[in-house]
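Continuing the series of single-chain predictions for the mutant panel. This is the parent chain; the variants come on the following pages.
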Amino acid sequence: MKVIVVGYGVQGHKRFKVAGEDAIGIVDPVAPEANWRRLEDVPADRFDAAIVCTPDQPKIELLRYLLERGKHVLAEKPLFADSEHDLRALEALARRTGALCVTAYNHRFEPHFVRMRELLRSGRLGTIYRCRMFYGNGTARLVRNSAWRDTGDGVLGDLGSHLLDTARFWFGEIADTFRIVSAERFENRAPDHVVIAAEGRPQIELEMTLLSWRNHFTCDVFAEHGSAHIESLCKWGPSSFVHRTRVLPSGRPPEVSEILVQDDPTWALEYAHFKQLCGTRTQTDLSNDLWLHRALARLGHEAQARSGA
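Parent structure:
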């Protein structure tokens, strides 16, 4: 499969490296390494697929251009549009031309995220009571210095999209009952620290921040027969997974733990998965993107209002 990378920023560099020999060129209006300045300049017979790593604003038009020509697309998250109609139109277009359109959520390929999903779906934990996730990095200053990143819903669309997608990856078709617990603008123009929560079973609380000076991720799942915990991601390692089995009436639970010290495997695993889907002519399904679009649009308006953005 011959691939082009559209947008050669931080993510574009990663995607181009992972694509390896498949990558035949870069499209970027300013990057000196770019082979073409505009997508329209790339001969259609030179490539089969594109990895789109641009800001949100031009993304939908770029995807439409590619899908109209039957080119498969892996688009950096989140897939935002002016309306749901735009996303439904993209899905219909992709199905009509036989092209695959997939939004990249690389954390689905984090080893401990996969292990958590397997444990939750095994039923060994029994009824799941509560899940809390924290995702933080220290990029507030970098975001503030970006003309396009420090706008709108801020950290909610950036890290919150990952957390909401992870909740659906683990728990399936959860209801969109999330509400804003807090939304702050401590250093940035857009919200840089947000907490959202949803009632029901399981209760879910998601906290995201650009003000964690040590990049960090934690997750705690509490359930009827025990609990499960993740600390850190492979890219920030060491990354640990702990499964504790409840002792009745109470007592110190036996636990099984695994600690990984390795480079981030998610980018290569996601790209391999994308190639496999293209090879099997998998039909485009944007239902997850539509759910996230609705949830993030609603929560984004509330977060901006609460924070005075």
